[in-house]
Write a structure and sequence with these properties.
alpha+beta, about 20% strand, single chain, Phosphatase 2c, domain 1, 15 strands, Beta-Lactamase, five-stranded antiparallel β-sheet, 2 domains
Length: about 425
């Protein structure tokens, strides 16, 4: 879509940016009118409020209510609008460091972000949390020199996010009511199918000890793993997470694991394999859905590891001397976030006694009832206190579940520990 000015001619473009756009009573009135109208369900009520935002805020072309953790769109405007996967991923990444909201709305802000990402351009967006799990994503047209330098900050949308709490609460109630209608027998069947798709790891690996645990937040989940020997002296270890939990995450997980098995029959390295998965999966992923994957190919004779990352947390190294090292690997972008995914192959060396720890975001983002994150410090205390891969796996899982509460874990949890045996 060609960039163009989206500010009506009636607005005085000579005004300073902070006066050019000041959402206030007009925005609140428009959103209230949308909320009070008759609606068929809570999603359409939220969509009406979002449509009001687009009409009032110059430059806005799409607005969505997004469940950040599940990677799911709860409502959107205009109806049927395609949310940019790249923008959604950038918003998710930014909110991890700016939990009160992030704005990339002015021409200069868009140019700065585009340069940092080595992209030709970045479309304007603003992401603001509605609560601990749901947020507002507002998108604009790609800006150019003809686009007015309209400033917009998360604080200016405070009243808007407050109003969105009304339909969000109703959406959650409808989802909960619908989920209770699903028969337990159907879920048990889905669980059995999923467990058959997650291939058991090799019983023994020369020179290595492997420990694996998988704990879905629901009866079925979106985490996945695949471990298999390739040839005489190579081991492929893959771990990942489909955005979303329950049946939707499990369905995409099943498709992905089947595709993984096919890709592993080729001679592709970890980076090429992930790029092949991108080409295969992107056409079937729903808008807003994405997949993170870490692929590690280990030479079991030398301990050399080739690593490919698609938006997934990098492996952590617990050395033989009981030090925890963040490898500083580039996590890259998830599958489905950008059409042209380029994965860089990176390398690390495992010495005898070293243990490589791979996890899904159930470890990184686990929270207790007070909203406190489990964090890397607690994780590292567990890693240095244990001797073997099996001990690390068991202790890390126990520590995390005790921290978040066994009955309130909101994310799937997968832990893989691979230790090179001492000579």
């Amino acid at each position: 879509m060609a960039p163009k000015s989206t500010v009506p001619a009636s607005i005085d473009q000579t005004l300073p940016p902070d006066e050019l756009l000041r959402p206030g009573p007009e925005l609140v009135s428009a959103m209230l009118a949308g909320l009070r109208a008759e609606h068929r369900d809570a999603e359409s009520q939220a969509a009406a409020a979002l449509a009001a935002m687009i009409k009032v805020i110059p430059g806005a072309v799409r607005a969505s209510v997004v469940d950040w953790r599940a990677g799911k769109l709860l409502a959107r405007a205009p109806e049927g609008a395609e949310v940019s996967r790249g923008t959604l991923f950038r918003a998710l990444s930014a909110l991890k460091s700016e939990p009160k909201g992030v704005s990339v709305w002015t021409v200069e802000e868009c140019r700065t972000l585009a340069q940092s990402l080595a992209q030709p351009e970045v479309a304007p967006f603003i992401a603001v949390p509605v609560d601990h799990q749901v947020g507002l994503l507002l998108e604009g047209l790609a800006a150019d020199d003809t686009h007015p330098d309209v400033a917009l900050t998360p604080a200016q949308l405070g009243d808007a996010t407050l109003l969105l709490k009304i339909p969000v609460a109703a959406i959650r109630a409808e989802i909960a009511a619908g989920s209770r209608k699903m028969r337990d027998s159907d879920l048990r069947l889905a669980q059995r199918i999923q467990q058959k798709l997650l291939t058991p790891p090799p019983e023994s690996i020369d020179g290595f000890e492997l420990a694996l645990s998988y704990t879905p937040a629901m009866m079925v989940g979106g985490d996945f793993f695949h471990i298999e020997k390739r040839g005489v002296d190579e081991l492929a270890v893959l771990i990942g997470d489909v955005s979303g939990k329950g049946v939707s995450g499990a369905m995409y997980m099943a498709y992905l694991v089947a595709d993984l098995r096919h890709q592993l029959r080729t001679n592709a390295g970890p980076a090429e394999l992930l790029e092949n998965l991108q080409r295969s999966l992107t056409p079937v992923l729903e808008a807003g859905m994405f997949v993170t994957v870490a692929a590690v190919f280990v030479n079991t004779r030398s301990g050399m590891c080739r690593v490919g990352l698609a938006g997934h947390s990098a492996p952590v190294l617990r050395t033989a001397k009981r030090k925890v090292i963040e490898m500083g690997l580039d996590p890259g972008s998830p599958i489905g976030a950008d059409m042209d995914l380029a994965v860089r192959e990176q390398r690390l060396q495992l010495a005898p006694g070293d243990c490589l720890v791979l996890t899904t975001d159930g470890v990184d983002e686990g929270e207790n009832s007070a909203g406190e994150a489990y964090g890397k410090a607690r994780r590292d205390q567990v890693l240095v206190a244990c001797d073997s891969a099996a001990e690390i796996n068991q202790a890390l899982k126990k520590s995390l579940l005790e921290f978040v509460g066994r009955d309130r874990s909101t994310d799937d949890l997968t832990i893989i520990c691979l230790e090179r045996c001492r000579v």
